[in-house]
TrEMBL record:
It comes from the Bacteria. Residues 19-288 form the IspG TIM-barrel domain. Keywords: 4Fe-4S, Iron, Iron-sulfur, Isoprene biosynthesis, Metal-binding, Oxidoreductase. It catalyses: (2E)-4-hydroxy-3-methylbut-2-enyl diphosphate + oxidized [flavodoxin] + H2O + 2 H(+) = 2-C-methyl-D-erythritol 2,4-cyclic diphosphate + reduced [flavodoxin]. It is an enzyme of class 1 (oxidoreductase). One of its GO terms (molecular function) is 4-hydroxy-3-methylbut-2-en-1-yl diphosphate synthase activity (ferredoxin). HAMAP family: IspG (MF_00159). The lineage of its organism: Bacteria, Pseudomonadati, Pseudomonadota, Alphaproteobacteria, Hyphomicrobiales. [4Fe-4S] cluster binds at C307, C310, C353, E360. This is 4-hydroxy-3-methylbut-2-en-1-yl diphosphate synthase (flavodoxin). The keyword Nucleotide-binding does not apply. The gene is ispG. Belongs to the IspG family.
Length: 422
């Protein structure tokens, strides 16, 4: 297949070269892996609830977790949360999300300022009018004192209205060369760049600055970050804000971030899903991992290939087995990452009939082709491309699960094979 073929899929573009930022031991930018972030939705002052959710997010694979610091009680709780996490053996960077009174909270709670790995500042509401630059300066000076990086996070829901008004007026004076939407995008980019420049003037090195410019519409996000990447080499955090709930939020975030990542833009990402009532907050971590893994940028958990089903697969056997295998793999990964180095590269196939089942199973490390409707009640299993067994009877699912476990131990355990070794 050539590059002129309509089905040609290009390799990812070269990564946008950004300055690396150390966030509590996690490298953001500088050519490192795209980092997965998440954010709690607990009241940070509730130490038990916040520790539990941070631990759950970390277990799911979040490499950095942001928490809200909006009041004295929350700021006072931060060092206790950090201490509790350390006692649990969880060394995960915590980011403080500050709005309106961040300068005061950091000054009044030095233990909070010390415990956080990074501060997030929104230039649109760090302060207003004559207080804005002064309060922004206070936070940057506090970050400098404790040698903490900052994320300057612009959000179009709280955009600096003075800057926007100036750009709108200038656009009118020039005869409206840009649409109102284009002016809005320019204001977002300028807000980030102006704030970053001010931070550097105050004395913050570029290797401690991360920028983000979040909007809630896919095309706006792509345009803003494409422009920002052209005009800056700061490390960039990607996220579609207010993405929404369920499939809408997943599709919108994946569409926007996927295009940017393919162009080499983005050093760390968060999928900002609205959780279902009492829903699992870790869903946003799973989606972020699946996006990066599907695009081939990183590997987090073994891949399970399963057919979509059709009239040949009227039973639910392969669906149930695929769900069970995938759930077991994800549940066990926190332990397996240490016990079985490299296991995240495993490929498992659970197929539903003879049409593509054997072929797809051969392409996987280990795969099973379950019998379709009216097919012989036998399920061939393929290991490393070769048929090694045929399962029959009422316990096909359980037998295959045991074979997967045995394969993982044999290949990735301490006495596993050394394929690829010199």
């Amino acid at each position: 297949m050539t590059k002129n073929s309509p089905n040609y899929i290009s390799e990812p573009f070269a990564r946008h070269q950004t300055v690396g930022v150390d966030v509590g031991g996690v490298l953001v930018g500088g050519g490192g892996d795209v980092v997965v972030q998440s954010m709690t939705n607990t009241d940070t002052a509730d130490i038990d609830a916040t520790v539990a959710q941070v631990a759950a997010l970390h277990k799911a694979g979040s490499e950095i977790v942001r928490i809200t610091v909006d009041k004295d009680e929350a700021a006072a709780a931060v060092p206790k949360i950090r201490e509790r996490l350390e006692r649990l053996g969880l060394d995960i960077p915590l980011v403080g999300d500050f709005h309106y009174i961040g300068h005061k909270l950091l000054a009044d709670h030095p233990a909070c300022a010390e415990a956080l790995a990074k501060y997030r500042i929104n230039p649109g509401n760090v302060g207003f009018r004559e207080k804005r630059d002064r309060q922004f300066t206070d936070i940057i000076e506090m970050a400098n004192r404790y040698e903490k990086p900052v994320r300057i996070g612009v959000n179009w829901g709280s955009l600096d209205q003075e800057l926007l008004t100036r750009l709108m007026d200038k656009n009118q004076e020039d005869g409206f060369p840009m649409t109102a939407q284009q002016v809005m995008r320019e204001a977002i980019v300028q807000s980030a760049l102006i704030s970053a420049e001010l931070a550097e003037q105050i004395g913050m090195p570029r290797e401690r600055i991360i920028l983000s410019a979040k909007v809630s519409q896919v095309q706006d996000l792509i345009a803003v970050y494409t422009d920002l990447a052209k005009r800056s080499n700061h490390a960039l955090h990607l996220g579609l804000t207010e993405a929404g709930m369920g499939s809408k939020g997943i599709v919108a975030s994946s569409a926007a971030l996927g295009i940017l990542l393919q162009q080499g833009i983005g050093d760390t990402i968060r999928i900002s899903l609205t959780p279902e009532p009492n829903g699992d907050r870790t869903r946003e971590v799973q989606v972020a991992q699946e996006l990066l893994q599907t695009m081939g940028f990183r590997q987090f958990v073994p891949v399970v290939a399963a057919c979509p089903g059709c009239g040949r697969t009227t039973s639910t056997g392969f669906q149930e087995l695929a769900k069970k295998i995938e759930g077991d793999l994800r549940k066990n990964m926190p332990i397996w990452r240490t016990k079985y180095p490299g296991v995240e590269a495993l490929k498992v196939a659970v197929m539903g009939c003879i049409v593509n089942g054997p072929g797809e199973s051969k392409h996987a490390d280990i795969g099973i082709s379950l019998p379709g409707t009216d097919e012989s009640p036998a399920a061939p299993v393929f290991v490393d491309g070769k048929k090694t067994a045929t399962l029959r009877g009422d316990n096909i699912a359980g037998d295959f699960e045991n074979m997967v476990a045995d394969y993982i131990e044999a290949r990735f355990g301490e006495k596993g094979d050394t394929r690829g070794a010199a």
